[in-house]
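Box S2. Input/output pair 1.
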Amino acid sequence: MAEGVFRSMTRADNRVSRIDSAGTGAYHEGCPPDPRTMSVLEDNGQLGYNHSARKVQNSDFMTFDYILAMDEDNLDDLLKVQRRIVQKSGAHAAAAKVMLFGDFGGRKGEQVVDPYYGARDGFTLAYEQMTRFSKGFVEQVLTRINIAETQI
């Protein structure tokens, strides 16, 4: 869901070149989003989101500038993977900034409660969080990119 929300929000933003979503486990690898995710996205005007679940790859730590975790457990897992890559290949092989997505939502340390095992209202709450986190990321990170480019 986070990818769909962020993609929709930054569609016309040339500061964002690539957005993808991956899990720290391969539980649903190759599967489309949960129907409740699609329903909530569609209810909010986000039509045509297409995604196939995949597991985080070592190459993601070089491909992406930011890797954003939904909760502390996933953040810890991602940081462990990044440390292993750095130990094996050096810092240049894992340059992505790994952070908690909720830190951009106005409440430091906020985590997304996984809605998968609950009812649809959990997906609505997750959508609201993803929207707030995405707006915060744009304001706190992408705006700085423009300021930095302007000052060069």
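Box S3. Input/output pair 2.
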Amino acid sequence: MAYFSDKHAPTSSSPIASPPPWTLAPKMSSWSVSPRRIVLFVLAAGLVYSLNAFLLVSKPHKSQRPSYLTEHLPYNSTVLPHAAFQPPEALPHRNADIVDTFASYKYRNTCNISSLDLHSPFAPLCTDRKSLLTAISSGGRIGHDAPYMPRGCDFRWFSTEEICEILSRFEKVIILGDSMMRHVVGSVNVLLRKDLGYGAVTDWNFSPEERQDCFCNYQFNVKACSVQGIFKTGDVVKNDPESLACPANTVDVIIEQMIRFPIPSDELDRLRALLPAEKPTRPYAFIFGHGLWNDLDLQATLDWLDTLLDVSVQQAPWLGPRSQPMIPHTRSRGRKPAVAAKGERSKQGSGFWPRLFLTPNAAGKEKPDEWLVSQGNKALMIFEEAVREEVKRKGVEHLGTWNMSIQSNKFDGVHLDLRGNLIKAMMVVNWLNMLEVEDF
């Protein structure tokens, strides 16, 4: 019988093997704390911190625009042969384009409008303002009231959060023009308030009849809801701040209705009141729209625009060029400027004055016969092409809306419904998004 006892255990004649490393007790480090070593450690840490701070300060000024506008991103290599439109780029900033951004909006199901009903994304995305404005001005639809497709490159369909961020880059976005431009402001408020039912109107003071007459698509019915439209985001902040999805005091969009030339003096005074004499911390953007109230008279429209440009730069010299005297815009037909004469405005400006001109919608079948010659589709197309060339000479960019609106519903042959106006508003937001605000 074997007994397991240390006393009777056999002894080995070979040397005792070293125990495994993991059975050894850890050794005490030979490094000891001393005042000298503490001082060296503190000096090394300070050097690392100083070097990091220097590198941060020496970095170039970061653009306020998103990186996909300021950095080169690879183009989507997925190509479908023989497809009219390629799928959108598989990039994070296009995620909002491929989903219904209205899914969380009030009255989404009742109004039955999806953002995908208005815009079908494709690749490539427009990369600069020139290609963007050309594409969205010359696109089309595959059927009446179908999603609008720009020509050649696509535009973004932004989420409300993205729109808030874009508008926050500006001190103020000023829109000047007629009822069609008022509807652009209303549509922007639909997007900012996430409300398809009443987002464009002053529903906080509505009667029961107004709540019925100015709902969903009918918010832009000029016969029943013209005075109930929202003219500025400041009214929303004042009367219904909880409905605004943007952070407090970050967006300011306003319209001043100036419908015909000559422009009454009180309307010009309202424009002056919007403009500070000193340069603000953020830029201003200007969006103009005119034509029908002067019966598509090209010269009257150009004189209308010149007057507004002159008044603006006179009141706010920082809008003008950096190194040139601010000379009023020239006029023909012998008409005199409505404001200061040549050479009066010599203060130097910022050189950053974003301006966009929108020409009128296409005419619909409900347009009265008496206007079919002077304001019919032939006249509107000629007017749009002429305005595009003329405003370019004044440093104003142009967005045509005839193509977008020719196959869209209109209440009276002139004014678009909610769907059409939301597309127009998103076009304007795309233009704002591409402005080099870091140059201000």
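Caption for Box S3: DSSP finds 15 helices and seven strands in the chain. The CA atoms of residues 233 and 356 lie 20 Å apart.
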